[in-house]
Specification:
The protein has 312 residues and is of the alpha+beta class. The protein has a single domain, classed as 4-Layer Sandwich (Glutamine Phosphoribosylpyrophosphate, subunit 1, domain 1). Helices cover 34% and strands 25% of the residues. The strands form 2 sheets. An 8-stranded mixed beta sheet has the order 4-3-2-6-5-1-11-12. The longest helix has 23 residues. The chain starts with 10 loop residues before the first strand and ends with a strand. The structure holds aspartic acid (ASP). The site of aspartic acid (ASP) has 15 residues, from β8. Aspartic acid binds next to β8.
Length: 312
C-alpha cells in the first residue's frame, strides 16, 4: 500500500494474523470466509469513521467484529492453553493522550477488547490480569459467556497435535498467528490502536505475549503513529516493536513504510516472524510482515481492500 499525496479524511487498517499463509495452504472456502470476515470488520469500523466518529470507537468496533469470528485467534476461536483452557489478552490505546488499557489471561468476557477499554476508562490502572480482570469485567457489566463459547474444533485439533509432538518441535508448529488488530485515524486527526488474542497454542505457566503489552504489540501516539502487531510475541516484546516504530517516526521522521520495514527486519534478525499495521497522522496506512502472508485490510474514503497472501 502506498501513501496518498493528501491526507484522507480518515483511515482504518486491520489485521487477522500473519504466518505461513500461502495459496496452497488455504482452502477456497477458508479464503472466502476470511475475506468476508475482514470486509465485515472494515465495514464496522468504517461506519464509525465515515460518520465522524472517534478512532478509538472504530478500532474497538473492528476488533470486536474480528473477535466474534471463529477464523481468528481472538475471542470466539481463541487457541487453547496446554491445559485446554482459554486465556485471552487484549489492549487498546488512545493516541490523543496516550491513555491505555490492557488485560491478560481473561476467561469469560465475550469481547476482551471492550474490557481493555473499560480498564482504560473506568479504572485508575493500565493493565489488569486473570481473576482480577475477570471480576472487574463482571463489575463493569460487560457481557460474560461460558468457556465453550470461545472453543472451536479446529483449535482443539491444533492443541492435540502440539501435545502429541516433542517439545523441541513446538515452535515449528506455530505456523499461523491469528491475533487480530486495528489502527485508525479519524476525521478529527486522532489515532488509536487495539489488539486482541488468545496467545499461542499450548502456552503454559501464565505466558503473556506482546499483544496486551503497551509498546510491544500495541501503541498509539498522535505525534507519530498507531501500531498493532501479530507474530511470535517473545521477539516483539524484546524489540519493543510498536513503541519502537512510533519513537523512530517521532524523533527521526522519515518514511513510515521504511521505518516499519526496518523494525520488522530487526525482529527477523532476532529470530522472530510476524507483522505490523501502522497508520500515521498524515493518513498513510501501512503493513509490513516478514512471513509469507498476513490477513489484512484497509479502508478510507477512497475505498476498501483486503488481502491474505504476500503477492495479493
Ligand atoms: N503475538 C501473539 C502472541 O505472541 C500471537 C499472535 O500474533 O497470534 O501472543
Amino acid at each position: 500500500m502506498s501513501a496518498s499525496d493528501s491526507r484522507p479524511a480518515w483511515r482504518l487498517v486491520i489485521h487477522g494474523g500473519a504466518g505461513m499463509i500461502e495459496r496452497d495452504r488455504v482452502s477456497a472456502g477458508e479464503d472466502r470466509a476470511i475475506r468476508t470476515a475482514l470486509n465485515h470488520a472494515l465495514e464496522t469500523g468504517t461506519a464509525v469513521l465515515a460518520g465522524g466518529g472517534a478512532a478509538l470507537d472504530a478500532v474497538e468496533a473492528a476488533v470486536s467484529a474480528l473477535e466474534d469470528d471463529p477464523h481468528f485467534n481472538a475471542g470466539h476461536g481463541s487457541v487453547f492453553t496446554w491445559e485446554g483452557a482459554i486465556e485471552m489478552d487484549a489492549a487498546v490505546m488512545d493516541g490523543r493522550d496516550r491513555n491505555a488499557g490492557a488485560v491478560s489471561g481473561v476467561t469469560a468476557t465475550r469481547n476482551p477488547v471492550r474490557l481493555a477499554r473499560a480498564v482504560m476508562e473506568e479504572s485508575p490502572h493500565v493493565f489488569l490480569s486473570r481473576e482480577g480482570a475477570d471480576l472487574f469485567s463482571v463489575r463493569q457489566g460487560l457481557p460474560q459467556v461460558p468457556p465453550d463459547y470461545f472453543e472451536t474444533a479446529e483449535r482443539r485439533r491444533q492443541l492435540d497435535e502440539l501435545r502429541a509432538r516433542p517439545e523441541s518441535e513446538h515452535s515449528a508448529l506455530h505456523l499461523k498467528y491469528g491475533t487480530v488488530g486495528a489502527v485508525a485515524l479519524d476525521t478529527a486527526g486522532n489515532l488509536a490502536a487495539a489488539t486482541s488474542t488468545g496467545g499461542l497454542t499450548g502456552k503454559r505457566w501464565g505466558r503473556i505475549g506482546d499483544s496486551p503489552l503497551i509498546g510491544a504489540g500495541t501503541y498509539a501516539d498522535n505525534r507519530a503513529c498507531a501500531v498493532s502487531a501479530t507474530g511470535a510475541g517473545e521477539y516483539f516484546i524484546r524489540a519493543g516493536v510498536a513503541h519502537e516504530i512510533c519513537a523512530r517516526l517521532r524523533l527521526l521522521g522519515g518514511d513510515a513504510r521504511a521505518v516499519a520495514d526496518a523494525v520488522m527486519a530487526d525482529v527477523k534478525a532476532l529470530g522472530g516472524s510476524g507483522g505490523v499495521i501502522v497508520v500515521t497522522p498524515r493518513g498513510e496506512g501501512i503493513w509490513s510482515f516478514n512471513t509469507p502472508g498476513m490477513y489484512r485490510g484497509e479502508a478510507s474514503p477512497d475505498g476498501r481492500s483486503v488481502a491474505l497472501y504476500g503477492d495479493d
